[in-house]
Amino acid sequence: MTAHEQQCRTSLSSRWEKHLRRHCETAGKTATMVVKGRVKRVVGLTIEAVGIHAPIGARCQIYMGDSVVESEVVGFAGSSTYLMPAGDSRGLMPNARIIPGEASYDAKVGDGLLGRVVDASGNPLDGRGRIDYSCRQPLLGTSINPLERWPIDTPLDVGVRAINAILSVGRGQRIGLFAGSGVGKSVLLGMMTKYTNADVVVVGLIGERGREVKEFVENILGEDGRQKAVVVASPADNPPLLRMHGAWLATAVAEYYRDQGKHVLLLMDSLTRFAQAQREIALAIGEPPATKGYPPSAFARLPQLVERAGNGEQGGGSITAFYTVLAEGDDQNDPVVDSARAILDGHIVLSRELAESGHYPAIDIEASVSRVMSDIVSDQHKQAAQRFRQLYSTYHKNQDLISVGAYKPGSDPRVDEAILYYPKLVQFLHQDRNQAEGFEQSYQELLAITEPESINENDAEAVIE
C-alpha cells in the first residue's frame, strides 16, 4: 500500500469515528430535530407541503427568498401536510423551504394594551410605538371547571334603557345581537362601549369593513373611552386564519384582565365572520359542507370561542360578552344565527322594519330575550317588564285592524288598554345615541309607564280614535 493510500484511509477512518461519536452523543434526541420540508403545491388558500412533521395548530415559516410567510398546520393526508397562510402569500414558488416553528400560536398580553389598537397578531396599528407585553398565554385559552364559575347574580348597567329595563343583562352573561346589515348593530355596540359600567372594554372587529375601525376608535370610543379599551382589528381583507386569530386574541386579552379580578366587557363584531373564516379554511382542506355551505367544524368552533367568556372562579373577575350575529337576508333561521341562539345566554334582535321607520335602537322586544333576567332583578321589576311585553305584543297583534280603522273601541278591553299605553311604550324604547340611561333610572321609568295611574282614562276615547 502506498503512502498516499495509507494517508487517505487514515483520514477516512478519522472522519468516520467523528461521525460515529456525534451520532452517539445525539442518540435519543432525534425526536426533537427540526425536519425541513418544501412546498408541493398551492390550491386556493391551501398550501400543501411534504417533508415536515408538525401537529395541528403548529406554526411554520415558509421562506421565499428574503421574505418569510407565517402559516399554520390545519390538516394532513398521507405524507402531505396542509398549511394555511397567516399573511400575504404572493410570490410563493414551488419547492419553497418550510421550517416548523413553535408548537402553536400564543397571545401576547399585558397592561400595556390599554388604550391601544392592535392587529390579529398583536402588532400595533395606531402608530403609538411598541407595546410592552408582560406575559404570554394560550391563544385558544384554558377551560374553567363549570362548577367553579361564579354564578350570574348581579345586574350590569349598559346605558341603554330598553336593555336595562326589559332585557336586563347580568355581569358575566353572553348575549347575541342578531340583525341584518345596516340596522344599527355597530351603533348599539358603540353606545354600550361608552356607557357600560366595566373596568376594561375589549373590542374585537372581526371581518368587517376596514374603514369602520378608524370610525369606531375615533367617533364611538373617543379619547376618554379609549383609555380603558383595547381594540383588536382583523378586517375583511385579512386571510381567514388571521380573522379567527383576531377573535381568539380579543378573548385572550379579556381573559387576562378577568384573571386579575377585573370586570371586562367584550364586544365582538361579528361572530358570523368568525364562522365564515372557519368555513373557508375547512372547505379549502376538503371538509364537506353540511348546512347551507357550512361544514361541521364551523359550528364546533363557535362554542369553543363563546364558552371562554363569562364569570371566572368564585370571587374573581368576569367577562360580559356581546356578539353581533349577521342574519343574512334577515333570516332568523340562518344556521349561524340558530347555532348562536342555542349557545348564548340570550339574544337581542334588531328589526329592519323598526330601523326603516326611524326607531332607534331598533330592538324587537317581542323576539328578544335575556335568559338570566329572572335571576338578577326583583319580582316587581319582572312583573313590570312582563306587563310591558303584554301591552306591546297585544297592540302589534291587532295593529292591522287598528291602522285601517276596523277595530271598534270597547270590543276587547285588553286591546283598548294596549292602544292607550302604546305611545308611551314606543317613547320609552326610543333613545338617542348620545344619551345614557342608568339601570335604576330605566327601572323607575318602566314602573312609571306600566302603572294604571299613568294613563288618564278621561282621554281614552280620544286616544283610541
Distinctive features:
465 residues; alpha/beta; nine-stranded mixed beta sheet; six-stranded antiparallel β-barrel; 38% helix
SSE topology:
Elements (H helix, E strand, L loop, with lengths): L2 H23 L11 E7 L2 E5 L8 E6 L2 E11 L2 E6 L11 E4 L5 E4 L7 E2 L16 E4 L16 E2 L4 H6 L2 E2 L3 E6 L5 H11 L4 E7 L4 H16 L2 E6 L5 H20 L3 E7 L1 H14 L11 H11 L3 E2 L6 E9 L8 H9 L2 E4 L2 H5 L12 E2 L2 H4 L2 H19 L1 H5 L9 H17 L9 H12 L9 H5 L1
Parallel strand pairs: 8-14, 12-17, 12-18, 13-14, 13-15, 15-17
Antiparallel strand pairs: 1-2, 1-6, 2-5, 3-4, 3-6, 4-5, 7-9, 10-11, 16-17, 18-19
Explain briefly what this protein structure is.
Helices cover 38% and strands 21% of the residues. The protein has 465 residues and is an alpha/beta fold.
